[in-house]
Amino acid sequence: MSEPSGKHLRAIIQTQTEIAASDLDLDVVMELIASRGQELTRATAGVIELADGDEMVYWTTTGEATPFLGVRLKMESSLSGLCVAEGRVLRSDDTDTDPRVDSEACQRVNARSMLCVPLIHHDETVGVLKVYAPDPHHFSEGDVETLELLSGVVAAHMSHASLFAAEAHVGRHDALTGLLNRRAYEERLPVEISRASRFGGPLSLCLFDLDGFKKINDTLGHPAGDRALQQVAALIDESRHTDDGFRIGGGEFAILMPQTEREDAELAAARLCKAIGEIGMSDGSLGASFGVAEGPTDPTALHAMADERLLAAKDRLHRRSR
pLDDT higher for 213 or 17? Predict the structure, then answer.
């Protein structure tokens, strides 16, 4: 195996020093490692992926991967998921012919060669460093060893590495419902808009607000309200496998629907509202209103448009109930 050059070893030592100086701020460390991994292997993109259930999430992105921050891939069909499962370095020299990867997905992100290195501490895989390039057979055995050393530097400086994945999950998930939270929503919305603009497809945003939620809390108590939120979250999670659901407020939820036009999104939202209305509350008070907007446009405008339509729906409901 060819070993890393002296230049690469100096860069790894420099990375170690920079990480130590960062006080292990999670986002700073991830950004540094993804960028350095891309640089040392002459790749066009660097990614830190974290496992979340049966999916891998693009937690940090650099280079050509930057527009894909927050993208979620099925663990079973991604090289990074296999890397986590096996806890070892995996390399794909040609993603067009490699049965371990989704070749169409790789073509969309311009990844013809790919190298995945697990971040391991105390025999636990806590993440994956991935680099990729547009040409086949891009990465050498020296690149493999360079990234292994780089990943070892990261793990050695993570005194709380066993909490790494948990911290990442908590930072972007709602503790009560398990859905992604507002922080994740604000990160993901511009990414999906960028992706829709890049590939020319539609993107719909649905905003939901629960009707009667305050009454449930006031009359049945907050435990009943919590159970209602969890049931709503379960319905959102099950509604469409390709969509991402978020709890963005008390009784407020959002669903991003890539490759979905407004008319189809409104039909899906109406079905979900009907299912929410059928949740068995003892006073029969739970319902939901929604507003849908279609992009791509800028994140602020898309959210404002959906919110305006949600408020109009709430106003119509209020007038009918008088």
Answer: 213
pLDDT in tens, 30-45: 788 889 899 999 999 9
Report long-range pairs for 309-316 (Cβ below 8 Å, ≥24 apart).
Answer: 309/207, 310/207, 310/208, 310/209, 313/289, 314/209, 314/211, 314/289
Distance CA 272, CA 195 (A): 26
How many C-alpha atoms does 252 have within 13 Å on its Cβ side?
Answer: 14
Q: How many CA atoms lie within 13 A of 308 on its CB side?
A: 8
In this prediction the pTM is 0.62
Q: Model confidence over 93-112: pLDDT tens digits?
A: 999 999 999 888 888 888 99
Tokens representing residue 119 in the block:
């971040």
In the chain, what are the domains?
6-171 (3.30.450.40), 182-320 (3.30.70.270)
Cα(44)–Cα(39) distance, rounded to whole angstroms?
8
Residue 67 C-beta-side C-alpha neighbours within 13 Å: 13
